[in-house]
Amino acid sequence: MVRLRVLEILQEQNHTKYWLFKQMDLSYQNFNRMVTNQTSSIRYENLDTLSTLLGCSVGELFEKTNDSDQ
């Protein structure tokens, strides 16, 4: 399973989820589903925006896990 590491990156950078939400052009419901790994698809433009705002590569946004429940 692959999961998005946005919340961990935010914590490392001392930013809040609210800060990131205000930067993104998404509804809160869609934003929250994305950052809490409750969605099965993410638009490329959202990945690009996330990597720009967080100052990391797109690959750094993800981690591979062995848990299929996440």
Tell me about this structure.
With 70 residues, the protein is mainly α. The protein has one domain: 434 Repressor (Amino-terminal Domain), CATH 1.10.260. 47% of the residues lie in helices and 9% in strands. Strands 1-2 form a two-stranded antiparallel ribbon. It is globular. The N and C termini lie close together (7 Å). The mean pLDDT is 93.
Strand order of the largest sheet: 1-2
* Mean pLDDT reading: 93
- What's the helix count? 4
Q: Please state the overall shape, judged from the principal axes of the Cα atoms.
A: globular
Radius of gyration: 11 Å
Main β-sheet: number of strands, strand sense, barrel status?
2 strands, antiparallel
What's the helix-strand series?
Answer: EHHHHE
CATH top level class name: Mainly Alpha
Give the number of domains: 1
At the fourth level of CATH, the homologous superfamily is lambda repressor-like DNA-binding domains
Low-confidence stretches: none
What is the number of strand segments?
2
* Gross CATH architecture: Orthogonal Bundle
The residue fraction in helices comes out at 40-55%
